[in-house]
Amino acid sequence: MSAQQAGPSSYFVPGPSQWPVLAGVALLVTMLGASGWVNGQSWGPYVNAAGLLAVLLVLYRWFGDAIAESEGGKYSARIDISYRWSMAWFIFSEVMFFAGFFGALFYARSITMPWLADLDHKLLWPDFAGQWGSVGPAGTVESFATMGPFPIPTINTALLLTSGVTLTISHHALRAGHRMQTAFWLFATIMLGAVFMGFQAYEYSHAYSELNLKLTSGIYGSTFFMLTGFHGFHVTLGAIMLSVMLYRVLKGHFTPEQHFGFEGAAWYWHFVDVVWLGLYVVVYWL
């Protein structure tokens, strides 16, 4: 945020806006298109694409208004606190989101698998060993190979850890007033995230073509792709957020004292890094 012109105790209240209504309509069109698409309607993909385009346009204009308000000096210290709490609660909701998937993995691996392999079930499934990555007690899932930590997951771990370092350097440069250093290290962070996604795309291709590991490969396949896939989506979203921050840095929007837009995106990126460390240990090593 730019230097504030509003008083420290003031609280800016925006005027009536059309963006919430338009966002609701765009989301409705998006979901109508998606429902038609999954039900085999020829118009479904086109309506879904139109709805997504409308959502992106509304978000672009809506966030543009918020940026203009910030750069116009309308945000006080109380607004800054509101944004910080909002971002903190948003990240907490994301923590709970991933906690649900980690919980499903723990339940399937540590509770369900031993339970299906105990003596009470030997008569039903005598050949079932209850080892993680099995094809199920009835053998209805095609054989597949599990995913190990080498080499791509380990490389991706190094990439994300390095991106956390480059982002921290960029933040310190911004606080010191070194705008070009801020932009350089922020760009490096975005590139590391892009390389991460490239490696994950290759990993998925390898899993499908060589390991026969798919989303339909029992509980192992579903938990693997849900956890890593949603994390990849969050990396993509975080890279988009950082790209917007890079654009704003180059436009001269932030000051060493007021730059919560940058900080909020950085919080999100560090959260994504921490989630990956959990994934790397639980999904690939254990």
Descriptive account of the structure:
The chain is mostly helical. The chain contains seven helices and no strands. It has two domains: 74 residues, Helix Hairpins; 210 residues, Four Helix Bundle (Hemerythrin (Met), subunit A), CATH 1.20.120.80. Helix content is 71%, strand content 0%. Helix 4 packs antiparallel against helix 7. The longest helix is centred in the middle third of the chain and has 40 residues. The protein is globular and about 75 Å long.
Question: Quick summary of this structure?
Answer:
With 286 residues, the chain is mainly α.
Distance between the termini: 44 Å
The level of helicity is: over 70%
How many strands appear in the DSSP assignment? 0
Number of spatially distinct domains: 2
The secondary-structure element order is HHHHHHH
Q: In terms of topology, how is this protein built?
A:
Blueprint: H1 19-38, H2 44-71, H3 77-116, H4 152-175, H5 179-209, H6 218-250, H7 260-285
Helix pairs in contact: 1-2, 3-6, 3-7, 4-5, 4-7, 5-6, 6-7
Any key phrases for this structure?
286 residues, mainly alpha, Helix Hairpins, Four Helix Bundle (Hemerythrin (Met), subunit A), 2 domains
